[in-house]
Write a structure and sequence with these properties.
Layout lengths: L12 E10 L4 E9 L5 E7 L8 E7 L2 H4 L8 H15 L2 E6 L8 H12 L4 H7 L12 H8 L3 E5 L3 H8 L4 E5 L10 H10 L18
Parallel strand pairs: 4-5, 4-6, 6-7
Antiparallel strand pairs: 1-2, 2-3, 3-5
Helix pairs in contact: 3-4
The chain binds zinc ion.
Length: about 220
């Protein structure tokens, strides 16, 4: 079931294991954590000395199985993930958190149900509402113990999402925003426009050449 925001206790996380993770862009260190209350497994990829006190280039990526692993063009998650890893590799230093909160927190099956509703005309926010969920159920408190684990207090955060910035500021982490734009395609143009209009994402106006595909 989804967590309510009433009477929270600080999120507890246990560090489990780490190893080297070679990628096309750099060899990262991959660190695995388990959320004590739910058993969910979260990951952090780090490169370089992230605990030396200098602001760390960072990305908080919420799991999107269809976008990250199955090349879905319904959203921009796969491109955002790859773009973030490339930028961290280019700087030789940074951190990417891979958070297991699929479908803005509604889970994989409900995300597929929401996609079906979108094929029938709803946008991404309306589809969540029709299924009885809020716009965005993602919880960024999970990040606090991970950043603590690495001794990170200050981020250069790659994001277009003001909710993410507010959530981290409330966790007492210093944030400087770094723009992180993935290009739009004919399949995700409407999705990106809805994120900008209804969820406050800071995105540039879409190129008129990309006529939104109303079937997606
Ligand atoms: Zn996605």
């Amino acid at each position: 079931m989804q967590q309510s925001s009433v009477s929270r206790t600080p999120t507890q996380l246990t560090f489990m294991a780490s190893c080297a993770l070679p990628t096309p862009w750099a060899t990262f260190q991959l660190h695995a954590f388990v959320e004590d209350s739910t058993g969910k497994e979260h990951l952090a990829l780090t490169l370089g000395d992230v605990g030396n006190g200098e602001p760390v280039l960072a990305r908080l990526h919420s799991e999107c199985l269809t976008g990250d692993a199955l090349f879905s063009q319904r959203c921009d998650c796969g491109a955002q993930l790859e773009g973030a890893l490339r930028r961290i590799a280019a700087e030789d230093r940074g951190i990417l958190l891979y958070l297991r909160q699929e479908g803005r927190g509604i889970g994989l099956i409900n995300k597929i149900r929401a996609y079906k509703l979108q094929e029938q005309g709803a946008d991404t926010v309306e589809a969540n509402h029709q299924l009885g969920f809020a716009d965005d159920l993602r919880d960024y408190e999970i990040c606090a113990p991970i950043f603590q684990h690495f001794g990170i207090k200050s981020l250069r955060l790659m994001t277009n999402n003001p909710r993410k910035i507010d959530a981290l500021k409330s966790l007492d982490i210093r944030i400087e925003r770094v723009e992180h734009i993935a290009s739009s395609t004919r399949h995700n143009a409407r999705y990106l426009a809805t994120k900008a209009k209804k969820l406050g994402h800071l995105l540039p106006p879409l190129a008129p050449a990309h006529k939104p595909d109303e079937n997606n």
